[in-house]
Write a structure and sequence with these properties.
- An eight-stranded mixed beta sheet has the order 1-8-7-3-4-5-6-2. Strands 10-11-12-13-14-15-16-17 form an eight-stranded parallel β-barrel, surrounded by four helices.
- By secondary structure, the protein is α/β, with parallel strands linked by helices.
- Helix content is 48%, strand content 14%.
- It has 23 helices and 17 strands.
Length: 568
């Protein structure tokens, strides 16, 4: 049994699909038969084209036209005689093998394009690199992993899953996944919960201990991976799978019920989403709001910035699907572990503490204004609230809001209708903001506490680093005091407070947050019904009576033990 971190509930039983980088090394020998090498090259090119056509079609169907366009660019590379003819020439004149001809020619073009001033040409270097790796894998007879081409029930095994990997996963066939690295707040874990598939992350060893087609069990409830299970284990986990399905049926009965504690106090349960396609899962799981729409997914997996029209369509779709229910949209939050290759931003020693989120937007106001215009235009289609991320100072908030109001005036002058009911708030994820919440509360319309970053910044512990994962402590009194300070400051100004970090859906944290007075809990859609079930059994007044004791405790362990004792 391999132990990891339970990242997404449920039990998956299927064959292993290895989403790992293949070994593409080869010996540079002279070719014995140039005609045969040309034939091998042409065959590898053709197979690669067929695969990319399938991936393009799948991406278009599952995610949309704009994401599929990257594969159109890849297909153009495979058909470009300027690239292919020099490869064949190397084979015929230098007796190069197909592998050597492909590799040398591709590297020559990649270096040439990378050094050009034209941004479009620099992007072509990345396309050539991606495409020729695929062709080389076919020449060497090794499997090139393609999550979009999975057509049988599998469990994906990987070192980690990028947002573009998870975007390609076919929910019909991918029954779960397990990774070497990551934690509950890593993007792969968050995506697993939005896909509603079981996942275990941070195992450190699944890619070493599991082979292609091994039968495995992923227990996303306990955080275990069982390799080549015995008949007894299979039977036991099938029972556990059935019990979990029954539990989900019980939760589903509360889908259309309000979220009311046992003493009659009501709170709001929302969901965190990344794409308009996620809204269906929010509504199916009884979501009362979207507490966080991560707009950066509109910008990722592309070769260029999304247009105002593309963004408007996405925001309008989410707002219309949600009707009168609130939708909190976070403006572009790139940086840290979310990179956009086409922006060509300089590498930073500490990207999580660097030029990211609102800092990028305030310097790149053309990008920021395009997004704000799209949001303002979409505002008439629903209940929009706009939230700025990574705000560290009051000046940043004022500057961002001024740009928003300027674009609002511009649109009105153009005769475009804009809602006058848009609340403007901030994410509280930097300790300086939590500490000075009293000052912010006088100017913002709401706070949403982003605990994923707030915890790592407060504890000085990278949430993606397994070696310091023991310091990622949501229940640490330092975190609870910051959260309490934000809620008290907001309520003193009659403003509401939400939480959109993963802590909002945590069964230990929920009773604490209820007692601290949190108004809105936003989480992965699949956590909503279990959270509603739990809150209905809690008394807000009773949990509030423990507030001073909890805030004065010395360790996270003391907090956990106390909460378990008082809520069992």
């Amino acid at each position: 049994m391999i132990q990891g971190i339970a990242a997404s509930n449920g039990i998956a039983i299927a064959k292993a699909y290895m989403l790992t980088a293949p070994d593409l090394s080869f010996s540079k020998n002279n070719a014995e038969n140039p005609n045969l090498e040309v034939e091998r090259l042409e065959k590898a090119l053709e197979v690669s084209k067929q695969e990319l056509e399938k991936i393009k079609a799948h991406t278009k169907k599952e995610i949309g036209d704009e994401h599929a366009e990257i594969f159109s660019a890849h297909l153009l590379v495979l058909s470009d005689p300027e690239l292919i003819n020099p490869m064949k020439e190397k084979i015929n004149t230098e007796n190069a093998t197909a592998e050597a001809a492909l590799d040398e020619t591709a590297n020559m073009f990649i270096e040439m394009f990378k050094n050009m001033d034209n941004e479009y040409m620099r992007e072509r270097a990345a396309d050539i690199h991606d495409v020729t790796k695929r062709v080389l894998a076919h020449l060497l007879g090794v499997t090139f992993p393609d999550p979009a081409l999975i057509d049988e029930e599998v469990i994906v095994i990987a070192n980690d899953l990028t947002p573009s990997d998870t975007a390609q996963l076919n929910r019909q066939f991918v029954k779960g996944f397990a990774t070497d690295i990551g934690g509950r707040t890593s993007h792969s874990a968050i995506m697993a919960r939005s896909l509603e598939i079981p996942a275990v992350v941070g195992t450190k060893q699944v890619t070493k201990d599991i082979q292609k087609d091994d039968m495995i069990i992923v227990d996303g409830i306990e955080g275990n991976v069982i390799v080549k299970p015995s008949d007894e284990q299979l039977a036991a986990y099938k029972e556990k799978q059935e019990a979990f399905a029954k539990q989900k049926e019980e939760w589903a009965k509360l889908k259309d019920e309000p979220t009311i504690a046992s003493d009659g106090e009501q709170v709001e349960l929302g969901a965190n989403i990344g794409t308009p396609q996620d809204v269906e899962g929010v509504l199916d799981n009884g979501g009362e709001a979207i507490g966080l729409y991560r707009t950066e997914f509109l910008y990722m997996g592309k070769n260029e910035l999304p247009t105002e029209e593309e963004q408007y369509d996405a925001y309008k779709s989410v707002l219309e699907q949600m009707g009168k229910k609130p939708v909190v949209v976070r403006t572009l939050d790139i940086g840290g572990d979310k990179e956009l290759n086409y922006l060509d931003l300089p590498e930073e020693l500490n990207p999580f503490l660097g030029f990211r989120a609102i800092r990028f937007c305030l310097e790149n106001t053309d990008v920021f204004r395009t997004q704000l215009r799209a949001l303002l235009r979409a505002s008439v289609h629903g209940n929009l609230k706009i939230m700025f991320p990574m705000i560290a100072t009051l000046e940043e908030f004022r500057q961002a809001k001024a740009i928003l109001l300027d674009e609002k005036d511009n649109l009105k002058q153009e005769g475009v209708k804009v809602s006058d009911q848009i609340e403007v708030g901030i994410m509280v994820e930097i300790p300086s903001t939590a500490v000075t919440a009293k000052q912010f509360a006088k100017e913002v319309d709401f706070f949403s506490i982003g605990t994923n970053d707030l915890i790592q910044y407060t504890m000085a512990a990278d949430r993606m680093n397994e070696r310091v994962s023991y310091l990622y402590q949501p229940y640490h009194p330092a975190i609870l005091n910051l959260v309490s300070n934000v809620i008290e400051a907001a309520h003193a100004e009659n403003k509401w407070v939400g939480m959109c970090g993963e802590m909002a859906g945590d069964p230990i944290a929920i009773p604490i947050l209820l007692g601290l007075g949190l108004d809105e809990f936003s989480m992965s859609a699949t956590s909503i019904l279990p959270a509603r079930t739990q809150i209905r059994e809690l008394s807000k007044e009773k949990m509030a009576s423990y507030k001073d004791k909890l805030l004065s405790m010395a360790t996270a362990e003391e907090v956990m033990e106390f909460v378990k004792e008082k809520t069992e």
